[in-house]
TrEMBL record:
GO cellular component, one term: cytoplasm
Protein name: Pyrroline-5-carboxylate reductase
Molecular-function GO term, any one: pyrroline-5-carboxylate reductase activity
Species of origin: Roseivirga pacifica
Residues at which NADP(+) binds: I6, G7, A8, G9, N10, M11, A70, V71, K72, P73
Compartments in which it is found: Cytoplasm
InterPro entries: 6-PGluconate_DH-like_C_sf, NAD(P)-bd_dom_sf, P5C_Rdtase_cat_N, P5CR_dimer, Pyrroline-COOH_reductase
Amino acid sequence: MKVLVIGAGNMGLTYGASIGQSGYLDKEDLMIYDKSTEVVEKLREKNNPNYEVYDDLEECLPISDIIFIAVKPYHNDALMEEMKPMMNDQQLAISIMAGVTIETIQAGLGIQKVVRAMPNLPAQVGKGMTSYLAAPEISRIELWMVEDLLNSTGKSVRVDSEKFIDASTGISGSGPAYVFYFMESMMEAARNMGFSDNDSKVLVSQTFEGAIELFNKNKLSPKGWMKRVASKGGTTQAALDSFDDNNVHNLIREAAYAAFNRAIELGKPEEEVELEK
Ligand SMILES: NC(=O)C1=CN([C@@H]2O[C@H](COP(=O)(O)OP(=O)(O)OC[C@H]3O[C@@H](n4cnc5c(N)ncnc54)[C@H](OP(=O)(O)O)[C@@H]3O)[C@@H](O)[C@H]2O)C=CC1
Ligand SMILES: O=C(O)[C@@H]1CCC=N1
């Protein structure tokens, strides 16, 4: 089996590294292609032991069995136009592009076997979360292969409609940035209180790490954990009351829906967009 990753950016290189390190494929069976000669040259200099690097689609696409599409959604039309004449109906495409629907990819590439997946950036450290949906034309055996490839970056969940791919974009796909937003705000508060940059970073990152580990080791809900931290009339309650007074809960919900709606928007012509409430 030969796997091609198109787009050597954040996510494409993540798949290259994760699939490569998983040991599923020999070096010559894992290929990365990018249209930028500068990117390709830099990658070739690094001489990664796990994959071959290509700058010519005609050399790598026709010999591929599974193709990851990891370019930005706005590059998709131009890419599919270039790919279509070289595709055959046995090939399987896995798109990780936000918003772009299975139907669009099937029509654009002239193939039926399409998987739409929404991973996230922690895939870079093997802690990724991916939701995915496969077109019905994909066989059970092909689906196992797809799952193995996706799971090389972390955990995955199979969903039964594209709505959930867009929804998971608003939760897990974009979610790491929400966490970093929260971290940035807490670090800024720490710096304002007089801590050094480094101490602010340690205070915040260890707090996040500890809280996640507690959460994962126990069935207690986040609300339950909040109660364990907050003493009646104490400091934590003062902070949680401040969150409530400023409606932070709703603001976070709105942000997640903004990403969800943007994913829907990216997948449809503007006049067809009907935003989720
Ligand atoms: N970043 C994230 O956390 C996540 C991203 N995604 C999705 O993954 C996709 C990729 O995102 P990301 O990796 O961040 O993007 P990047 O911009 O980092 O990577 C995309 C790469 O593809 C290249 N490219 C553009 N057009 C073509 C083409 N026609 N042929 C080959 N290569 C091409 C780009 O080159 P150039 O820069 O020169 O245009 C760039 O090197 C997006 O569709 C996004 O929605 C999904 C989940 C999480
Ligand atoms: O911001 C984006 O559009 C992509 C999809 C999810 C994460 N990054």
